[in-house]
Every structure is written in structure tokens, then in C-alpha cells.
Amino acid sequence: MSRDELGIFSWVAAAVFALAVGVWRPRKLHWTVLGSVLLFAALNAGAGIYVLNHVGDPRWSAGEPPLTAPSFSGTPMVGQFLGPLDSALNGVVSGVNAFLAFKQALPVALDFLGTSGWALLASFPLGILASVVSYIMDRRRTADFEKYRATVDRLKVELEEIKAQIPSMNSVGTALPAEDDVTDVRPTPTR
């Protein structure tokens, strides 16, 4: 992936996460937003670390070719004595090329790491906001539960009152008819 594709990937992955989890759990949307911001921060930090681990990659360079050391071993008459100088010079040039590659990759990595830092900074107020929203929803749910509990308690009291009245009705002589005493009150078909 190129530098731009890495940046776009973190945005798209965070947006897809927010949409998927938001559809799956719409009542916890505040936590979903916080999770997507933290995912965005983690992806950007991972991209920055990836750039730093692949310093010599040409995707981060500005198109500058690496430096090459001249060869002194081909020099007439003294070239055979300058062979160790060639290897030392190649070592120095490879070190300079590694430094230049790091110098070119560092701004790219810092861009990703800086974006990750800003996302983490934004996650603190979002975390506080999500906690407040969750607390308010918890209080509302507790109040609704207490309201339902009061209704159930009131209905239990009414049921006990009705149960208490039923035995007193039986003693007065209002007993229910026996099964054999039930008469059929359905209308009969006429012809």
C-alpha cells in the first residue's frame, strides 16, 4: 500500500467499524463512536510503526536515487592496494543511504503517529461523554425498573385484597355451582 492508501485505510476501517457496530448495537452508539476513534488511533499508530520498520522502502522516499561509492580498485597500478578502501567507502555510503532513507521515512511516520495522537486526544472527551450518557441511561433504566416494581407491588396488594374477599363470599352462600349443575345456555338451532 502506498502512503495515501495507508491513510485512507485507517479512515475506511474506522468508518466501517462504526457503521457495523452501530447497526448491531444502536443503543450503545456512544461507546461505538469511542471505539471507532480508538481503532482509528491504533491503525494510524500501526501505520507509523510499519513505516519505521520499512525505512528503506521506496514508497517513503522523495524519488531520490541512493548514493553510490566510486570504485578505486580499477585504478591502474595502485588499484590492487585500494581494494580495502573500496569496501570501507561502500560501508560509509550504505550508512549514509540508510540515514537518508530514515530521514525520508521519518516525516511520513510522524504524520501517522501525529494523527494517532490527535485521535487519542479526541478520545478522552469522547470517553467522558460516553460515560455520562451511559450513566444517564442507567439512571433512566433504574427509574423505569422502580416504576414497574411499584406497579407490580400495587397489583400484588390488589390481588391479595381480591383473594381475601373470595373466602368471605363463599361463607355467605355464593359458592360456585358444581360441574353437574351447569346448564347449557347456548341457543338451539331453529328449523
From TrEMBL:
Transmembrane segments: 6-24, 31-52, 117-137
Keywords associated with the record: Membrane, Transmembrane, Transmembrane helix
Record-given protein name: Uncharacterized protein
